[in-house]
Amino acid sequence: MAMGKLTRGGQGSNPTPTTADLTARNSMAYTSSLHLSKHLLLPKPHRARPSSSRSPSFVRAARVVNGAPHVNGHSKKAPNGKSTMEGTALRNYDLLLRHDLVVAQEINLFVHYCLLAMPGVRATEVRRVISHPMALAHCGRALARLGVDREPVEDTAGAVEMLRSNMMLDTAAIASPRAADLYGLDVLAHGLQDESWNVTRFLLLSKPPSPVAVPVDADAKTSMVVAHRGGSMAVVLKVLSAFSSRNINMSKLEVINNEGGVGEPRPPVMILDTGARGAPTLRAFPHVLYVDCEGADDDPLVREAIKEIEKFAVFVRVLGCYAADTNVYDLQ
């Protein structure tokens, strides 16, 4: 992921969606891992809107946005992100594919991790640390030095709430400095992340069409998924050729092979096909490519590349076209 300037408070070069854009959908859902900074992420008129709703996970947030319970008997689930330290959060991308949602905007956030504990608890008394699995991974070396057990939970905010509600005196949580202020916790350590430059990419999702137009003076980015049933490397080379022959830069190419070998059964990637005749249908694929490319999906060269890929791929779905944001926002 390309890194741009570090911007405090989210005042980047790309325009924030207007209140009219966001409220046209009548609701905004955000995950509890973001609710501690929600007031900084959302436009000011939308920060206190009653239609904004907190969801305890990406799955439930997507259900709120999607507004429908099930498709063909399958539970509809969805969204999100990438970290500079741990790479793509593949589970969330897999969930995104199960919904009729589009990526409307990307937001790159600098991540500050702190070790939080109940008031009066000392670091030497901590025997266990709870947090989101990615947060635990980001702080792996620091936790190893502490010699504590690690327990993954749904998200960082949930870890803080669990710590506070259960009055855990032998447990600490990894979360943001703001969580300590909101929940009245002590900060045992600042900057717990193993790498100082720790950035996570969040995606703003919407029902199609996207409520956020790409400004005419902004660089656009298009995200898509390419599904196929065999010959993984051959398909990768063909996808690369489709873009490189038209001088289109790719900022992401993630190859997922869920075919597995003998004794290695892996679940296929499920993708919602909204273009199927009749009701939208979930389709299963053993091989999937996640692609981000520079340019809008209505750009003639990008359209040509997509049409070329459709000739050899089993299924192609554009996940969204949005303004490319190279800024990194510091919400501290």
UniProtKB/TrEMBL annotation:
Pfam families: PDT (PF00800). PROSITE patterns: PREPHENATE_DEHYDR_1 (PS00857), PREPHENATE_DEHYDR_3 (PS51171). GO terms for molecular function: arogenate dehydratase activity; prephenate dehydratase activity. Transmembrane segments: none annotated. One of its GO terms (cellular component) is chloroplast. The keyword Lyase applies. Pathway: Amino-acid biosynthesis. InterPro entries: ACT-like_dom_sf, Preph_deHydtase, Preph_deHydtase_CS. Coiled coil: none annotated. Keywords: Amino-acid biosynthesis, Aromatic amino acid biosynthesis, Lyase, Phenylalanine biosynthesis. One of its GO terms (biological process) is L-phenylalanine biosynthetic process. This is Arogenate dehydratase/prephenate dehydratase 6, chloroplastic.
